[in-house]
Amino acid sequence: MTNSPETTLLGRDAALPSSPEEAKLDPVPNPHPDVNYLARFVAPEFTSICPVTGQPDFAHLVIDYCPDAHLVESKSFKLLLGSYRNHGAFHEDCTIDIAKRIIAAVKPRWLRISGYWYPRGGIPIDVFYQTGDPPDGLYVPETGVQPYRGRG
Q1: Active-site residue, from 26, 34, 50, 93
Q2: What is the mean pLDDT of residues 70-99?
Q3: How far apart are CA 148 and CA 152, in angstroms?
Q4: CATH fold of 36-122, please?
Q5: How far apart are CA 117 and CA 98, in angstroms?
Q6: Which of 13, 26, 34, 57 is labelled catalytic?
Q7: Which residue ranges are tagged as binding site?
Q8: CA dist., res. 91 & res. 97, Å (int)
Q9: Distance of alpha carbon 107 from alpha carbon 41, whole angstroms
């Protein structure tokens, strides 16, 4: 497999970065930059650490974006998400940080991130962000994640 000149991880052995600051999100050329389409990443088992208690926090993330010149390379994306496993930050910080990292790496035409966090202290905290209105004609399906209902 040949690597894009911009990639650092594709086709290479790579260890899990020990922190999000060490992780690199690689762009790859978009084969269809002339088309507005939606690319979706779903991470149903995202994990980070509570910065106060040190206990693990879990989320179901749905990231939708309309690529421009570049796509997010999936291996680097998986490594970025894994780098949060030992990272202490609040739900809002992790969710928005991931969005900012994607925006900085690939400069999408549009991005939406939906962070469905499992309860901490009995309260689920959901975090949503998008860069603005989606481009005209872009098909944006629902995330498919139901609000937290507990055991009910």
Answers
A1: 50
A2: 97
A3: 10
A4: GTP Cyclohydrolase I, domain 2 (3.30.1130)
A5: 14
A6: 57
A7: 72-74, 91-92
A8: 10
A9: 16
Please check whether residue 71 is in contact with residue 105, taking contact to mean a CB–CB distance below 8 angstroms.
Answer: no
- Hey, which bits of the chain come out as E strands? 27-29, 39-49, 56-66, 70-72, 110-117, 126-130
Residue with tokens 């481009």: 135
**126 classed as catalytic:** no
Name residue 139's amino acid.
Y
Check residues 148 and 8 and name the one with the higher pLDDT. Answer: 148
Annotation marks residue 50 as catalytic: yes
pLDDT of 78 higher than 50: yes
Evaluate whether 108 touches 88 at the Cβ level (below 8 Å).
Answer: no
Residues in a beta bridge with 29: 70
Q: Which residues are annotated as a binding site for substrate?
A: 72-74, 91-92
Per-residue DSSP letter, 6? T
- Strand order, beta sheet including 126-130: 39-49, 56-66, 110-117, 126-130
Place of tokens 């035409």: 109
What is the pLDDT averaged over residues 53-70? 97
Helix, strand, or coil here: 99? Answer: helix
Output the pTM of the full model. 0.91
